[in-house]
């Protein structure tokens, strides 16, 4: 696959994945088209060497794997991990506000969102709706407005003369989302029924609950004088999900390779479908079949956690350590932290540098300034839960956790080439 084809697919994936539910559904679609088979955690598994399989949980996390034809106890697993969630605004349980003749929805901030860029954007709404159908069963379906239905208007500069000097955002009072004029707006439940109908769901007896998020309707795009950059919402971390997915699809059928994409990383990963939950370990233990095989396989396994890295910003270069400022379009970044906020050590880092050399791809390093706090990833969580050697890598990015982020055109493709070599065990 060439870089142009890869990036066109990436842009489509980003646009079709406004929520973790939709991202997981898009990955399921791609895996199914490639011959991977769906498994249910509640059923017996009969795994065939050389075949590919996937398991989802909560509709928002997925583990996909190829069953190699060698003894997994001797080979171990080559694993890559990412996360499906991104900071956003989620609709409250009782969200409806009628104020000054307008219809608004109250929201809660999910994750560490950069809030100011959410103002004056064209917003859509998407997520999962649970309902009782006409047969009396409780089921769920995904919905997506597919167009801009809302906005959060800024307060005019004339009414806030200090806005450019000292603008802060109060999530409770400043972020209720404007959907329309009150007299023209249907009941919120009726709105959800209409959205379900647009998805082809026509058996709704009663809407029971929902998990809905607002998202930026501006499409992902290649920008820059020569198309050097990828601009999109949710690059952190759907970009890594797509990288891992493409590498797994190209992985040889005779090797034991795994991709895990967890939900809830942005809020600590502590859920049944998050990296602190048992999903990945449960799947691997079922593949292994016995405790001895599991222990032997884990001792021979390796995990690459892929999550975006902070590219050095030309306007704020002092926010980086002078010797560790990753550049966009200069290769994937090895993320290092001596306090184990990243799982990389010298051996796993050396392994990755060797993979990059064999793939013909550049590589960079990142450590946070010693006087600044360091974020974290699913890497240390997975390493501590499984006892598997792990490293953290990522594509350098600007404006992380903004409603629209920026990455390099060449970096995502380059990291996918490295992961392809990783899965091949060349």
Describe this structure in words.
This protein is an alpha/beta fold and 426 residues long. It folds into two domains: 276 residues, Zn peptidases (Aminopeptidase, 3-Layer(aba) Sandwich); 129 residues, Roll (Aminopeptidase i, Domain 2), CATH 2.30.250.10. It contains eleven helices and 20 strands. A nine-stranded mixed beta sheet has the order 1-2-3-13-4-14-18-16-17, with helices on both faces. Strands 8-7-10-5-6-9 form a six-stranded antiparallel beta sheet. The chain has a five-stranded mixed beta sheet with strand order 11-12-20-19-15. A hairpin with a 4-residue loop joins strand 7 and strand 8. Helix 6 packs across helix 11, helix 7 crosses helix 8 and helix 9 crosses helix 11. The longest helix has 16 residues. The protein is globular, with a radius of gyration of 22 Å. The two termini are 18 Å apart. The relative contact order is 0.18. The mean pLDDT is 96.
